[in-house]
Automatic annotation (TrEMBL):
It comes from Salix brachista. The keyword Signal does not apply. Gene3D superfamilies: Histone chaperone ASF1-like (2.60.40.1490). One of its GO terms (molecular function) is histone binding. This is Histone chaperone ASF1A.
């Protein structure tokens, strides 16, 4: 059993222009006292093929999470328009224990620009839409009490993370996103 239960994540100001800040309200409950802070991170996946385009938009010790938009100069032009992923993660003592993934659709708001896109992306005309009604929630077993092995959380028998569709329906877990790994 986890020491922290994520109860709700609300995406605010959605849809919004691409260059608008991201805003999330996060509700959770601590089921037991914790000695350290929870760390929330917001990661924008800039390219499905290359993690070097991923951007850590924010890292905070308490909610709500408000983050600047991704830097479009760090995203290949061909990856700006279309579907990408936004990851909201929470860690305790450097151990990620929950990840909420959202698909994000970036497209021109103007129908004529959608039908006949310009050769160079007009970023100020791009609108993002976070598919907030279909989050993918993945929970990872961690040790919330490393100083007390009796209070340690044991991983499940199959040692695989549990993933839900946001409605607590169990799904096969996707592999961890490589930009979440610790270290270089």
């Amino acid at each position: 059993m986890s020491a922290v239960n994520l109860t709700n994540v609300t995406v605010l100001d959605n849809p919004a222009p691409f260059l608008s800040p991201f805003q999330f309200e996060i509700s959770y409950e601590c089921l037991t006292p914790l000695k350290d802070d929870l760390e929330w991170k917001l990661i924008y996946v800039g390219s499905a093929e290359d993690e070097t385009y991923d951007q850590l938009l924010e890292s905070v010790l308490v909610g709500p999470v408000n983050a600047d938009p991704p830097d479009p100069s760090k995203i290949r032009d061909e990856d700006i328009i279309g579907v990408t992923v936004l990851l909201l993660t929470c860690s305790y003592l450097g151990q990620e224990f929950v990840r909420v993934g959202y698909y994000v659709n970036n497209d021109y708001e103007d129908e004529q620009l959608r039908e006949e896109p310009p050769p160079k992306v007009l970023i100020d005309k791009v609108q993002r839409n976070i598919l907030s009604d279909k989050p993918r929630v993945t929970k990872f077993p961690i040790n919330f009490y490393p100083e007390n092995t009796e209070g340690a959380e044991e991983p499940p028998v199959n040692d695989q993370p549990a993933e839900t569709d946001g409605n607590e329906e169990q799904q096969p877990a996707s592999p961890p996103h490589s930009s979440d790994k610790e270290g270089p």
